[in-house]
Specification:
By secondary structure, the protein is mainly α. It contains 16 helices and no strands. α2 (34-55) packs parallel to α6 (117-131), α6 runs antiparallel to α8 (150-159) and α15 packs across α16. The longest helix is centred in the C-terminal third of the chain and has 23 residues, at 249-271. The radius of gyration is 19 Å and the shape is globular.
């Protein structure tokens, strides 16, 4: 799992939450009720911090490790940090956690009656990132997204009191689609971490070697592969699109923003002729607003 490293401040809580502005889609936009915004930011803080642990993007100095009870000598051991983070998460549900982001999350968990499972899924995904760096099949990648992405959508539904079995199914499709899009934007960054989230069977089909992903320019086989995976992501977003129309009011705007972020990113990738190696294609705000408008008018 990846994210833009914006440089974390000396305040571990503030530095993590500041990253919300750099996501593909709005995390807790102004039009939501304040308690929703507070709770969504608490969930985001958890998800962002566990990603930073898994990606080795914690701020220098070891402040987060110390808060989790990990010694400076072990502060670079990601699996150990994830174990400590999981132990602190469990305190959210039965004691007092050590990390300020988890203390903040504790209010949300109590207010919304959240369960440990989606949080544990996100930790498991980051633990898997330390052990699994290649995915053989599309189904293998979907199983990873079940841990790395889908819990976030389930938490959004739970925080807003909107969970039903059908909405969870549609949310899973949207979240997996968004995760695939992010992987496509970050092919070079992920390769720098010795991770490839393009299924090996698809790389073979399009005659793409790992060395092609490290090239200075994006060759035709890589572009064809990216186009193929982008279509799969688009199909997933379309599968989950009815989720937007199934909810009322301001939640509809939030979910439209999520889907719009993924669709606008796919359009940006296509506009770059599927060249993802020279830098991650990113949509602008106008593109996002245009996509959201199309979705809200029911013409997507």
């Amino acid at each position: 799992m990846t994210g833009t490293d914006t440089g974390r401040s000396g305040d571990p809580e503030r530095g993590t939450l500041d990253k919300a502005a750099h996501e593909n889609f709005p995390v807790a936009p102004f039009f939501l009720p304040k308690l929703w915004r507070d709770d969504l930011m608490a969930v985001y803080g958890f998800a962002r911090l566990v990603d930073d642990i898994g990606d080795g993007d914690l701020a220098p100095g070891g402040a987060d490790a110390r808060l989790l009870g990990v010694s400076p000598a072990d502060a670079e051991d990601r699996l150990l940090l994830l174990d400590a983070f999981e132990a602190d998460l469990r305190r959210v549900f039965d004691a007092t956690p050590r990390h300020p982001l988890l203390r903040r999350l504790q209010y949300t968990v109590g207010r919304r009656s959240l369960t440990p499972e989606p949080f544990l899924g996100l930790i498991a995904a980051n633990r898997q990132d330390q052990l699994v760096t290649r995915y053989e099949t599309w189904d293998d990648l979907l199983a990873y997204c079940e841990l790395s992405a889908n819990p976030v959508g389930r938490l959004v539904l739970a925080v807003t009191g909107s969970s039903t079995l059908e909405r969870i199914r549609m949310s899973d499709a949207v979240c997996t689609g968004l995760q695939i899009v992010e992987h496509l934007q970050d092919v070079s960054e992920d390769l720098g971490r010795d991770r490839i989230y393009l299924p090996a069977e698809d790389m073979k089909r399009f005659q793409v070697q790992e060395a092609d992903l490290a090239a200075d320019s994006t060759g035709a086989p890589v572009r064809a592969l990216v186009a193929h995976e982008a279509q799969r992501a688009r199909d997933l977003l379309n599968e989950g699109l009815p989720l937007v129309g199934s909810v009322p009011g301001r939640l509809k705007l939030l979910l439209a923003g999520f889907v719009a972020g993924g669709r606008a990113a796919i359009r940006s990738i296509a506009a770059a002729d599927h060249d993802v190696l020279s830098g991650p294609p990113k949509p602008g705000k106008i593109q996002l607003l245009r996509e959201a408008g199309v979705i809200l008018r029911g013409k997507g």
